[in-house]
Amino acid sequence: MGGQATRTLAAKLNDLFATKKRPDGKEYSNEQVAAAIIAGGYVKTASQSYIWGLRNGTKNNPTKGYLEGLAAFFEVPVAYFFDDDVELVRQVDQQLEALKAERARMASLSGDEEIQLLAMRAGQLSPERLKLVRDMLDVVYQQEQAERRSPPDGGLPND
After folding, report:
1. Gap between the Cα atoms of 145 and 13, Å rounded
2. Are 15 and 97 in contact (CB under 8 A)?
3. Burial level of 74, CB count in 10 A (0-12/13-18/19+)?
4. For the chain, is the Cβ count within 10 Å smaller at the N or the C terminus?
């Protein structure tokens, strides 16, 4: 990504495919995205081969419907696919980088057995009890953050 506003449509699409993952963590296929564009009513026909062509740069002039469908699927503004709004492209790229970083952080946490046990148990709670656990976790988290901001000698923080 690198914040370059002049990236090709293919580069932007490939970044989006790499960033927005299926619930199982795998990349969406060209066929799945084509089906979603059709299901969304953006185009009457779409093919995985056309999306493949957009991604490898052999196709570079998609219809308005295709762009709207791709934008809706990847949850970005249609203008992201154009270089006219450099600031918008930069903002979306920053959001995509933040999403990738958060996904990497979550992946590193998923290997922690205690966190997996907490998540497994939380998944078996009623909605009311799950909300109670979230509220309690928020309180503990806020206390932890406050302790981190306090000076170690118990005095007033230096501003």
Report:
1. 38
2. no
3. buried
4. C
* Residues 129/123, Cβ–Cβ less than 8 Å: no
Q: What is the pTM assigned to this prediction?
A: 0.60
The SS3 call for residue 27 is strand
Q: Transcribe 77-121 into DSSP letters.
A: -GGGGSSS-HHHHHHHHHHHHHHHHHHHHHHHHHT-HHHHHHHHH
| Local structure of 21: helix, strand or coil | strand
Q: What angle do the packed helices 48-56 and 30-39 form, to 10 degrees?
A: 120
